[in-house]
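User: Fold this; tokens only.

Assistant: Input:
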Amino acid sequence: MIKYLTQGSVPKGEAGYFASEKKRRLLITVLLFVIPLGVFGVSWYRLGTRNTVWTVGAIVGSLPGCRSLVNLIMLLMRSPMDRSLYERILPHQGRLAMGYELYMTFYDKSAFLDAFAVCGQTVVMLSTQKDVDPEYIASHAQELLGKNGYRTDVKLLTSEKKFLERLDSMNENYDSLHAGLKDRKDERYPGLSRDEIVRRLLLDLCL
């Protein structure tokens, strides 16, 4: 149970994450509210009044539950990735570091990402969200990766056909796209290659 609550059954960045994460966060939210409400109820029953320090503690203790509830609502508003789309993308993945079914948020705008691929300094994303702003999302993701020390060229595509063509091209030119790039040690992500680190950084930008 503890492992499920901390990690979930489907890792972030894999197809099926949203459905799994909704269930996990629902359980976490319920638990975070049950504890302070239990303290409040027991103290009121035992002391016969709500005007106690236990009530204050219960109110403060409910704040994590409120935050979890907000995150849960944001997840519930999003639909999972189309399974057939995932199955169409998978044969084109090759050696690329991929991420699937993600919701990337920034201050002003957000976007549902069906998938993204990392190869050297190239990052390509796909979003089937109708009102997505490709330039805004790509530029902000690129900026944040740069601030973390990883220079990249990020593109967000809304065409499945163009995205699959780009994946094939990245696989065909895999070695040349990595030419001159050296894997460096990153204490935050020990043992990961440069592509895998960029992938993890992108995952950290998502719910």
